[in-house]
Amino acid sequence: MAWSLQRLPALSEVQFVRWSKLLEERTGIQLAHSQRTLIESQLSIRMRELGFDDYDDYYQQVCRGVSGQLEWSVLIDRIAIKETSFFRHRPSLELVRRYLQQKINNRRVDGSFDVWSVGCSTGEECWSLAMLVNDCFELASLEPYYGITGLDISLSALAKARQAQYPERKLLSVKADEMQRYLQMTSDGRFDVVSKLRDRVCFSHANIIKPGSLPAMKVDVIFCQNVLVYFRRWLRRDILNVFAERLKPGGLLVIGTGEVTDWEHPGMRRLVRDDVQAYLRDGQE
Ligand SMILES: C[S@@+](CC[C@H](N)C(=O)[O-])C[C@H]1O[C@@H](n2cnc3c(N)ncnc32)[C@H](O)[C@@H]1O
């Protein structure tokens, strides 16, 4: 049998704990024991690509200086769960629409309307936000003065997000009128996001457990779904405290329903809703 086809030995309990600790220290992502096979297969695929046949040798490589950091960024692309879709949770997105419409109606949009999609994966969440924010500006016949920033730890996910091109099967939750206005079919049957949205959306590498890696600006909306669930509860609360400080007065924070049950912040008020979990920052909108 060719060497490259040989199975690597199973990841031992001690090795699993060691790799899990490293992942959690660096990203916040906590692995369940049931994910041992997943991590074992991702590690072994990568090790085979590089010619390693020992998990511990590869561990040393990943922890070694600049080359280790580069290797880590490849590995995290393989390990992080990046599942996402357009309009994944419409009620949460519609809340952002209503929030902006109200601001526009009350003439409270002064300056740019800025949104973060944190843990944006391959971009579908950002483009969904861009569609509804753009709708609001167009409906009010206002200049589209807004910016959406997608943030993620995975460089490969961000690269796909920037391409802004998706196969039709990814667009099942996009309504016909949204398809018509915001997506264009390419010659090979895929769909490109139109340039008026691309002009308003940018993507940036960030690790949310390192607040210094987040952009320095304050924003109107922070949208963060299906990310905190991978973190320990104390870490979720710490991250939400950082988000609270990054909102403009009156800003809106939207997370996934049930992702955090025990967080309170003196400057934030939870909205009373069953289908979405969201908080408003104190202060004038
Ligand atoms: C399951 S996806 C969620 C995508 C999207 N928010 C949604 O709800 O459809 C989780 C994303 O969080 C990213 N992520 C995980 N840990 C992160 C961290 N520490 N900093 C930034 N992004 C992280 C992953 O790379 C992945 O793209």
Please provide a brief summary of the model.
One of its GO terms (biological process) is methylation. The chain has ten helices and ten strands.
Please give the structural blueprint:
Elements: H1 13-27, H2 36-50, H3 55-62, H4 65-79, H5 90-105, E1 113-118, H6 124-139, E2 146-152, H7 155-163, E3 165-166, H8 176-182, E4 183-185, E5 191-193, H9 195-198, E6 201-205, E7 219-224, H10 233-246, E8 247-255, E9 268-270, E10 277-281
Helix pairs in contact: 5-6
Number of domains: 2
- The overall pLDDT average reads 94
Could you give the order of the helices and strands? HHHHHEHEHEHEEHEEHEEE
Bound molecules: S-adenosylmethionine
Distance between the termini: 67 Å
Organism: Cellvibrio polysaccharolyticus
Domain CheR-type methyltransferase: 4-259
Keywords: Methyltransferase, S-adenosyl-L-methionine, Transferase
Protein name: protein-glutamate O-methyltransferase
Give a structural overview.
The protein has two domains: 3-79, Chemotaxis Receptor Methyltransferase Cher, domain 1, CATH 1.10.155; 90-281, Rossmann fold (3-Layer(aba) Sandwich), CATH 3.40.50. The strands form two sheets. Strands 6-2-1-7-8-10-9 form a seven-stranded mixed β-sheet. With 285 residues, it is α/β, with parallel strands linked by helices. The chain has helices at residues 13-27, 36-50, 55-62, 65-79, 90-105, 124-139, 155-163, 176-182, 195-198, 233-246, and strands spanning 113-118, 146-152, 165-166, 183-185, 191-193, 201-205, 219-224, 247-255, 268-270, 277-281. The radius of gyration is 21 Å and the shape is globular. S-adenosylmethionine (SAM) binds at residues 27-29, 80-84, 88, 119-121, 125, 152-154, 157, 206-209, 225-227. It comes from Cellvibrio polysaccharolyticus. Residues 4-259 form the CheR-type methyltransferase domain. This is protein-glutamate O-methyltransferase. Keywords: Methyltransferase, S-adenosyl-L-methionine, Transferase.
